[in-house]
Amino acid sequence: MEDLTFGTGGRPAGVPNVARMESEPAAVDVRNLSKRYGGTLAVDDVSLRVATGEIFGVLGTNGAGKTTTVEIIAGLRRPDSGHVRVLGLDPRRERAKVRQVLGVQLQQAHLHHALTVAELIDLYVSFYPNPRPARELLDLVGLTSQRTTRFEKLSGGQQQRLSIALALAGRPRVAILDELTTGLDPRARRKVWATVEQLRDENVTVLLVTHAMEEVERLCDRVALLDAGRIIALDTPAGLVARAGAANLDEAFVALSGKELEESA
Amino acid sequence: MSSPIIARRPGLGSWLTLIRCETKMVVRDTAGLVVPIGLPLLILMMNSSAAGGEVVINGRTALDVYVLPLVITIVMATIGIINMPSFLAYYRRSGILRRLSVTPASPAMVLIAQVVVSLLQTVIGIGAAFAVALLVFDANPPLRPAAAIGAALLAMTAMYALGMIVAAVAPTPNSAVAIGLVAFFAVGALGGLFGGRDSLPDVLARAGEWLPFGASVEVLQSAWAGVPMEPLHLISLTATIALGGLIAAVFFRWD
């Protein structure tokens, strides 16, 4: 996996499979979701449907409600109101079933700091009845040569890639990836993108939380633009650009939300 | 593609993998091993030569009846009250428990695996102290071995219960260590950690005897000397377990 081969085969980004969206039940179905923390509405009447095999972006500034939304979808938080289904299952009431088919990469998730890459992969693989083999996971995220390195000794990018590998350990049908490439250098970022493109080829549904425009353009079939907890636009990346009459997605974002996206460090 | 989704709990292989991982975490945390294995050995060394010779009761020496029960209690208390909660607090704070909660493994699996590993650690700590006492200082085994094992299990459960209270109230890993140390030295000082309770004021000596550290020393002493255990001490340990379980159930948070 040292060479940077990018998603061959499969649909290119930005071309949603509309026919499948209409005929099949949604992989992720969210209706009228709201969540309040104290006085602020973190998520405000959010609805979205993600089709099987789709790579769906959730884009917005910090504090726009992206992470809260996907954490509710993952069953980590209880919504105040609204309806959530993942492959037809309720993430809180049917938690055990959802855990079999949903892979989650949490933002800044820490792992056992003194365990090595191989030990952590073996551990997470052991949780699932039909896991992806450890060697395949290592290869997928390009960490084969770091397999005996402890988590605490990995670079930020390597930790992030390990975190993605663990989210994919159980061969999930839906993957939630939160702030996938934040803090990565360009080379590490391209490697992670190649991994996501491989998921597209395997027909895995991906919910991608991000504030990186390049990532959205490169990977996402459709994208929901969140601002202050509300979806202010939902379209293909090209559709958003066209709708805003903008030259690129950056400009479209500013035009639609009235805000600059902060530079992802 | 749309095969029915069945909820499967992680199997035996997964439990063994997790226990192996938790063992590695404990072994690689070298500082955490010093206190439960080193401190009891040190106390044993300091007290054994003086206490070894004189027979106190039923052919058992002061070493058997006073030092060994104290040393065993120190091993159990340091692991139960300081080490176990600091691991749990670290796992909670760092988001490890949260990460596990989105897999088929439950955070409770981690708790149970930690208990298994810390029990192994306790057995090693007690085994090391006991071996040194037997081989170097001519100590004698307890007159009632089964009672001693039962007493140790009850006392260990009480120490875990106390540790769960620490884990439940501690907001951060550092505070868990601090609260654990304070709790350990508090019940220890009153329970004879720094010398007999006789030198303490009456009220404190009585309180120390009722608290789990003192009660643990007392029941182990009875088992060693071959005399009946006092119901008061057994009730005290049982009450600690009930109270700790209750407080942990109400206040412990996974994230």
TrEMBL record, chain B:
Organism: Nonomuraea aridisoli
UniProt-recorded name of the protein: ABC transporter permease
Annotated signal peptide: none
GO MF annotations, alphabetized: ABC-type transporter activity
Keyword entries, A-Z: Antibiotic resistance, Membrane, Transmembrane, Transmembrane helix
Record's subcellular location: Membrane
Record keyword Transit peptide present: no
Lipid bilayer topology: Multi-pass membrane protein
One Gene Ontology term from the biological process aspect of the record: response to antibiotic
GO cellular component labels: ATP-binding cassette (ABC) transporter complex
Positions of the ABC-2 type transporter transmembrane domain: 15-222
Pfam family, one: ABC2_membrane
The keyword Transmembrane helix is annotated on this UniProt entry: yes
Membrane-spanning parts: 26-46, 66-91, 111-137, 149-169, 176-194, 232-252
